[in-house]
């Protein structure tokens, strides 16, 4: 839809909504909990903007009910996330929760979701086992095994024989390390060192010196969204960009939010991930244009898409239940849901409640003078390998 037309439809829809009176039981509150401050604040900002864009494009009435999105800052502290979740359900009568910028924050809410029978939509975190912690969890982000395993396969096919892994030392980093290293060594590759860097106040410099000393063909990296620029700066400071060590990883390190500021050192990095702002589809072109317009030119990253699709999943479920907010009915309606996301076709695996999606192989390159993750290959409809392996 051309932008002018889209704006008109939203404006007309908005007028109709504010003109109609909604009785309290025709208002559905959704609670979004995000780190809006601290080192993962970029995730909060991107996620909030993604959810709001979905509502701007699709209106705020679903199955005759008015949707109200309540956004709260948990500062990245799990005890705060949990308390806010309880308040959103107890005081605001939220009928679904979404967001959670890091794995420990998503995990903190799992028992609350189970107890209250309220769906928890994980739109950012990526540790594989999260969805197993409550039958009320569904995920629209990704899992690290989903992205890391295809990276191992690409490395094996592209003459990379000796690798050092560097990951942030918590759930998603441990998943990334395992799901890269195991298939890579099984296929004949060698992981010469596995380095884990603390999540809090990471100083990559001493670890990168070790990588340089090991002189591998490539360094495989996972750092959470928001940390990539600091990693890249120290990569350059240690001279690794000129050392012939190739940079590979899951797409978190070349996050679209930070990539424009990373500079030439990022050029040529190969990553596997589910979303790039450069993804070539009509849905993504509209998404990126509308997102930039609504957010002062900010480029959407995979966090924005996770939240956008989290809203898509909630809207889909409410339509399927004809506006019923019964938590069991909502989660049942989410299982098997399918739609076209800005990232490509996606569905919710009815057995695991995890997203099934394409994983793209991308190379950092310049497009119109700006750095992008340019997709050049893909593995279609990837299920989370951790659960596919019977975990
Ligand atoms: C997580 O904490 O699960 C997480 C956060 C940021 C990422 C990936 C995973 O980029």
Give a nutshell description of this structure.
The protein is of the alpha/beta class. The protein contains twelve helices and 15 strands.
For this entry, give a set of tags:
single chain; 391 residues; alpha/beta; nine-stranded mixed β-sheet; six-stranded mixed β-sheet; 12 helices; 40% helix; globular; disordered N terminus; binds P-hydroxybenzoic acid
Please give the number of β-strands: 15
Annotation field: number of helices: 12
Structural class: alpha/beta
Ligands, ions, cofactors: P-hydroxybenzoic acid
Beta content: 15-25%
Q: What is the mean predicted local confidence, pLDDT?
A: 93
Shape: globular
Biggest β-sheet, characterized? 9 strands, mixed
Low-confidence stretches: 1-20
Between the first and last Cα atoms, what is the distance in angstroms?
43 Å
What would you say this structure looks like, in words?
- 40% of the residues lie in helices and 24% in strands.
- It has 391 residues and is an alpha/beta fold.
- The strands form two sheets. Strands 7, 8, 9, 10, 11, 12, 13, 14 and 15 form a nine-stranded mixed sheet that branches. The protein has a six-stranded mixed sheet with strand order 2-3-1-4-5-6, with helices on both faces.
- Residues 1-20 have low confidence and may be disordered.
- The structure holds P-hydroxybenzoic acid.
- P-hydroxybenzoic acid binds at residues 102-103, 125-127, 172, 224-225, 252.
Write the layout of secondary structure elements.
Elements: H1 3-19, E1 27-34, H2 41-58, E2 61-62, E3 65-73, H3 78-90, E4 96-99, H4 103-116, E5 120-122, E6 137-139, H5 144-157, E7 162-168, H6 171-186, E8 190-197, H7 205-214, E9 218-222, H8 228-237, E10 246-250, E11 270-273, H9 282-294, H10 302-320, H11 327-334, E12 338-341, E13 344-348, E14 355-367, E15 370-382, H12 385-388
Helix pairs in contact: 2-10, 3-4, 5-6, 10-11
The structure holds P-hydroxybenzoic acid.
P-hydroxybenzoic acid (PHB) binds next to loops.
């Amino acid at each position: 839809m051309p932008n002018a037309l889209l704006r008109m439809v939203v404006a007309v829809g908005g007028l109709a909504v504010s003109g109609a009176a909604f009785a309290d039981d025709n208002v559905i509150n959704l609670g979004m909990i995000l780190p809006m401050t601290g080192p993962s604040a970029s995730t909060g900002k991107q996620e909030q903007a993604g959810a709001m864009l979905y509502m701007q494009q699709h209106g705020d009435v679903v199955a005759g009910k008015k949707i109200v999105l309540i956004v709260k800052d948990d500062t990245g502290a799990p005890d705060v996330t949990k308390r806010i979740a309880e308040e959103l359900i107890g005081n605001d009568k939220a009928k679904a929760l979404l967001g959670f910028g890091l794995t420990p924050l998503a995990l903190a809410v799992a028992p609350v979701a189970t107890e209250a029978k309220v769906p928890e939509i994980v739109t950012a975190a990526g540790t594989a086992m999260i969805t197993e912690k409550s039958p009320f969890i569904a995920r629209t982000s990704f899992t690290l095994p989903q992205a890391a395993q295809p990276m191992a396969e690409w490395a094996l096919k592209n003459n990379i024989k000796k690798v050092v892994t560097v990951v942030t030392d918590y759930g998603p980093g441990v998943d990334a390390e395992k799901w890269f290293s195991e298939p890579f060594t099984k296929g004949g590759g060698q992981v010469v060192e596995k380095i884990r860097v603390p999540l809090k106040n990471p100083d990559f410099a001493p670890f990168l010196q070790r990588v340089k000393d090991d002189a591998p063909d490539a360094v495989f990296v996972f750092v959470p969204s928001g940390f990539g620029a600091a990693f890249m700066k120290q990569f350059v400071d240690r001279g690794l960009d000129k050392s012939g060590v190739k940079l590979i990883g899951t797409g978190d390190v070349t996050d679209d939010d930070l990539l424009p500021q990373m500079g030439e050192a990022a050029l040529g990095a190969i990553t596997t991930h589910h979303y790039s702002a450069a993804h070539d589809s009509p849905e993504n072109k509209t998404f990126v244009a509308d997102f930039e317009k609504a957010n002062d030119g900010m480029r959407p990253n995979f966090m924005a898409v996770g939240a956008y699709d989290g809203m898509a999943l909630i809207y889909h479920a409410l339509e399927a239940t004809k506006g019923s907010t019964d938590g069991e009915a909502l989660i049942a309606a989410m299982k098997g849901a399918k739609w076209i996301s800005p990232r490509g076709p996606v569905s919710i695996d009815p057995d695991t409640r995890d997203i099934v999606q394409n994983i793209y192989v991308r190379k950092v390159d310049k497009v119109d003078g700006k750095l992008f993750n340019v997709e050049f290959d893909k593995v279609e409809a990837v299920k989370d390998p951790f659960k596919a392996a019977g975990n």
